[in-house]
Design goal:
By secondary structure, the chain is mainly alpha-helical. The protein has nine helices and no strands.
């Protein structure tokens, strides 16, 4: 998460110093370098043989999809990804148009949440090992919702920065670590890769819906309401998770 946070900040600096074309050229170069590093440095994976003790159990999809924790985690994961899609689509528009922020300032807002998320991971892990993970997911999601609500109710740049850092960054760290811990528990019985794949699907579908549906919200009632919508979706997803589990 910390490495992911460097991207928006670096892109903002490059845009302010050069232009938007240089941002995309830099992205292409870094993607190529990452692909080369994976091809050269990543060790070969061990193939699972038939009858291997590490092979996942053969559980019917009908059983997996009916599992309450699978459903609950999918819903809360989709809601958090929905808000992320909305944020990455409209936070730059809001900050530049409403507050006159530079690209570097926009990048700092997006970066601070990811850097905080990464820095908080060890603490979140200790919390997930000691306390009720359902309540931690609910609490983390509530913090994220509060962070995303900040641009809707204030006009101060530094207040928004703090909101994204303490709300979105800390909250996502707590919710994500507890979610992953529950995925491991469930995956032991249903198949680890299967459970993980469903959560990856929830992330992709959430980002897609967040980007598209909040575009409609923006066109109808304005950019501030995008963040209100993201907040409500997160709270709805967290409540659905608690009720389903």
């Amino acid at each position: 998460a910390s490495c992911f946070g460097v991207g928006p900040l670096l892109a903002g600096i490059i845009r302010d110093q050069y232009d938007i074309d240089t941002v995309f050229i830099s992205m292409a170069v870094m993607f190529a370098a990452a692909s080369f590093a994976v091809a050269v440095l990543l060790p070969k994976s061990r193939r699972i043989k038939s009858g291997d003790a590490d092979a996942p159990p053969a559980v019917p999809w009908s059983t997996i999809l009916r599992h309450p924790y699978v459903q609950g985690l999918y819903l809360v994961g989709t809601s958090l990804a929905f808000a992320m899609g909305a944020s990455f689509t409209f936070v730059a528009i809001f900050l530049e148009r409403e507050l006159g922020a530079t690209a570097t300032m926009v990048g700092a807002v997006l970066a601070i949440q990811q850097v905080t998320n990464g820095a908080m991971q060890p603490i979140s892990g200790m919390l997930a090992d000691r306390f009720n993970r359902r309540m931690l997911i609910m609490g983390g999601a509530t913090l994220v919702a509060a962070g995303y609500l900040t641009p809707a109710i204030v006009d101060e740049y530094w207040v928004i920065v703090v909101g994204f850092m303490l709300g979105v960054g800390v909250g996502n760290s707590i919710a994500q670590v507890s979610t992953q811990a529950l995925q491991v528990e469930i995956g032991r019985g249903l198949g680890m890769a299967t459970v993980m794949s469903l959560q990856a699907t929830s992330f992709g579908s959430g980002v897609l819906m967040g980007s598209m549906l909040t575009g409609i919200v923006n066109d109808m009632v304005g950019t501030r309401w995008v963040f209100v919508a993201a907040t409500l979706v997160i709270l709805g997803g967290a409540l659905a998770f608690i009720l389903r589990t």
